[in-house]
Cobyrinic acid ac-diamide synthase (Leptothrix cholodnii), 281 residues
Amino acid sequence: MKTVVLCNQKGGVGKSAVATLLAHHLAQRGRRVLAIDLDHQGNFTRPLRASGRAEPSACTADALLTGPVPPMPLSPFVVVPADRALLNLERQPDQHTPFARRFRSFLASVDAAFDVCVVDTHPNPDIRVIAALVSADFALSPIQLNQEALDGVTGLLNHERVGLRKIKAVLNPKLTLLGLLPTLVEPTPFQKANFQQVVMCYHPLMIRVGERPGDFAAIPKRSCIAEAQAAGEVLWEMKKTAARDAWREIEPSLSRIADLLDGTDRGITPHAQEASHGPAA
Ligand SMILES: Nc1ncnc2c1ncn2[C@@H]1O[C@H](COP(=O)(O)OP(=O)(O)OP(=O)(O)O)[C@@H](O)[C@H]1O
Ligand SMILES: [Mg+2]
């Protein structure tokens, strides 16, 4: 089982929406998917439950850190729902190490039952995010192309508690940044300029979907994505033409992410002009 954690300390950048699309996409590809919602807001739990595709576990996600954990349902698509009890975990600092150890033991215990575990997190850099990152194989970071996008990326990598570089160096050497994933992308001159700036500074951290310059995974802003999330519908099964068009736009990005998780990625050679840019900060 490969575990991927959706993380970014910025709120509202599309973490839960991407987690939901990815979980459905992986399930549709025939992968056995375990979805864990570590955010008490439950924005990953709600659409998965409402879709009727994922079977809820007997316990809520806080139990994965506090124990005991009942057996997971024998289903190829399981969601461990969020609960407000997740809010209590940060207030027990003497328990943080046992919390992280229990979460890691839980993941090890379901290793043979699932192919991929998708973990959604809260923007607060607390013990829930740390517990997830210290046990994960991959981090996937949705970013929004607003004014603070570049500052946000610096924080994501270097935050003193949950910075991906620090976690990798000190606590979890196997942690790999799957990539930065621009989300809620709009074709405005402002966003285009920010996209170019992110590519210039961080292209080695972005997810290639093709060989042309600018061929990086991204999720456009589309009202049907928000509607699918709110109604618990699977985007590509919605009746609207707009939903199918949106799926056509994002399918290459989600497929590439799924390939990277599967380890079946064929690799894409970056355009020479881009490869000559300086190293990522
Ligand atoms: N690509 C998209 N197009 C349109 N709306 C989107 C898209 N992605 C997310 N949204 C909507 O934007 C809002 C924020 O998205 P989401 O909840 O996924 O962000 P988040 O990063 O998980 O937020 P939080 O930090 O609070 O957990 C939601 O209403 C969601 O439905
Ligand atoms: Mg969320």
